[in-house]
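Why show two proteins at once? Because comparison is the fastest way to build intuition. When a single record is shown, students tend to memorize it. When two are placed side by side, the eye starts asking what differs. So, the first record is below.
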Amino acid sequence: MAFPHIVLTDSQTHLLAELLLAPLPIRKGSGRGAEVCEEDTAVRGLDHDTAPVDLSRLIAFGLAVPRTGSAHITDLGMAVHYEKQLGVAQAHLGDVVRFATTVEEWHPRLAQTLRLLAQGEISLAAAVTDAVSPEQRA
């Protein structure tokens, strides 16, 4: 089965992350969508005005499902959430590697240590030890 590419807004991404932590209480709205309590959205840092629309979109994408008075994340929703988190982590590691490449001319040992740390080949403790060793300062 192919994994669909789903683009979410920041508020939809936030709501999806919140659903991963705990279901969101909902009740049937007067329109087509579900209503969410203002207190529930405020506690989670969600925008009360956009939450019902965002929830409707997440349900339409198959990332969430309404069940017995609350909205729950689906397996696909979890996969989309973690895929986004993986992309963010990869971008950060890419920044570290680009930084190491930039400073390599002036601090070759530091650059090598940063690369090894970013690649998971050494521990943070080993990187710190290497960075503060007397040979590094010389």
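Second record. Ask yourself what differs from the first in the token line.
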Amino acid sequence: MNRRKALAGLAAMPFGVAATGLLAAPATDPIFDLIEQHLAVHNEFNEYLRLYGDDADDDAEADRLSAAEIALRYEVLTTSPKTAAGALAVLEHLISRSPKGHRNFVFDEQQADALCGSFIDFMRSLLGRGGA
């Protein structure tokens, strides 16, 4: 079953979830673009490190890629998903692994707090509870 069919099945859920627009097509949720951007920079950075190894230390390009990866990671963590599909995509992105089995996404306590905050905002919007 593809993801769109699965989401269509969720539209029949109780609690008025479908009426809120939170199960709308993924294109309506900006989190998907952020995830794609983060994954692209993450992969580019890892490939750079693979190619240059220890020579990447104190390297301006490695520093640039590292800074871009960290900034996009934080943006993914702090952006509240707008759809249930977006929330699922964030969680899947967090636990995804590279072909070699390494985690693609590692974060510290501050970033974990940011993720929890963005998901609290998402759940409030899902339940129609507004702000804090």
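One difference worth noting in the second protein: The chain has a mean pLDDT of 76.
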